[in-house]
Write a structure and sequence with these properties.
The structure holds 2 protein chains of 2 kinds.
Chain A: E1 11-12, E2 18-19, H1 22-31, H2 42-47, H3 61-72, E3 84-93, E4 102-115, E5 118-128, E6 134-144
Antiparallel strand pairs in A: 1-4, 2-4, 3-6, 4-5, 5-6
Chain B: E1 15-23, H1 25-35, H2 45-50, H3 60-75, E2 81-88, E3 101-114, E4 119-128, E5 131-142
Antiparallel strand pairs in B: 1-3, 2-5, 3-4, 4-5
Classes of the chains: A alpha+beta, B alpha+beta.
GO molecular function, one term (chain A): (3R)-hydroxyacyl-[acyl-carrier-protein] dehydratase activity
Pfam families (chain A): FAS1_DH_region
Organism (chain A): Streptomyces qinglanensis
Chain lengths: 153, 144
């Protein structure tokens, strides 16, 4: 069943703010095996012109993915969440995320397409700091896979 | 922001140093904890096979994070990475053995975008076990 196109353009209110902690950035950098000191050493970050340690470029997804998935779990949209996979991801950084940031995300459904029985949703998250300045625009592509006849749903 | 590579020193076709990133089950558990993505397809073999996967697979976002390191190591300053996007085309399958899997990343300058902003487009090729795992993988990088 095709999803309701009237959801295109629907915006979901800003999330509860997320406070970016130095130790969380360190934990993330260690998890991806990246020992660039700009993620862990404020002096090294300042030497590159950053006021604080910065986060790896994809870190912000761990802040925003819950919002994107909240959107697809909107009961009015009627998507079968169990079939949803992550199809693509894009970040536009207005500035690097850094320790001490208090980030809020506003999510918007940008498009809904049907492709070969799959439903493809593009969700845009605008991530802003406490002053309301844009930090990152996060484009998340979610694909609800077609129900195969063999699954008998 | 202070990239260590000068815009004037690169041309279309300039290759970034290629890298291979190992990934094993422990790495995936660490990434799950750090990112908050506890989907069992990334750590539970029984669950992964039940949903039709060959084995546990790496988080797409883990692969995306590793691929970015080819760019951030090149520029020195990760703040130079302005835009970065990928499609998740094939999973990185991570067997429960001593080897795990490997993510191979090559990248090159595809376009010089803006002489004033000193931005270039970098295209990445990301594969594992001989298959391309990320599609349309490209970045915009601001150089010195």
């Amino acid at each position: 069943m095709a999803l309701d196109q009237s959801f295109v353009g629907r915006t979901y209110p800003p999330s509860r703010p997320y406070e970016v902690g130095r130790e969380k950035i360190r934990e993330f950098a260690e998890a991806i095996g990246d020992d660039n000191p700009v993620y862990t050493d404020a002096e090294a970050a300042r030497a590159l012109g950053h006021p604080e340690v910065i986060a790896p470029p994809t870190f912000v997804f761990s802040v925003t993915f819950r919002e994107a998935f909240t959107v697809v779990q909107d009961p009015e949209l009627g998507l079968d969440y169990a079939r949803v996979v992550h199809g693509g991801q894009r970040f536009v950084h207005h500035r690097p995320v850094r320790a001490g940031d208090l980030l809020s995300t506003t999510s918007t459904i940008e498009s809904i397409k049907s492709l070969a029985g799959n439903e493809v949703l593009d969700v845009r998250g605008e991530v802003r700091d406490a002053a309301g300045e844009p930090v990152v625009t996060v484009h998340t592509k979610l694909v609800a896979r077609a129900v195969e006849a063999a699954e008998g749903e | 922001m202070t990239a260590q590579i000068a815009y004037a020193d690169v041309e279309v076709g300039t290759e970034l140093p290629a890298r291979t990133f190992p990934v094993d089950r422990e790495r995936l558990i660490r990434y799950a904890g750090a990112s908050g993505d506890f989907n069992p397809i990334h750590w539970n073999e029984r669950f992964a096979k039940d949903v039709g996967l060959p084995d546990v697979i790496a988080h797409g976002m883990f692969t995306m994070a590793e691929a970015a390191r080819v760019i951030t190591d090149w520029t020195g300053d990760p703040g130079a990475l302005v835009e970065y996007g990928v499609r998740f085309t094939k999973p990185v399958v991570v067997p429960d053995d001593d080897q795990g899997a490997a993510i191979e990343v090559a990248a090159k300058v595809a376009k010089k975008l803006d002489d004033e902003a000193r931005t270039v487009q970098v295209d990445l090729t990301v594969s594992s076990a001989g298959a391309k795992v990320l599609g349309m993988s490209r970045a915009v990088v601001r150089l010195a």
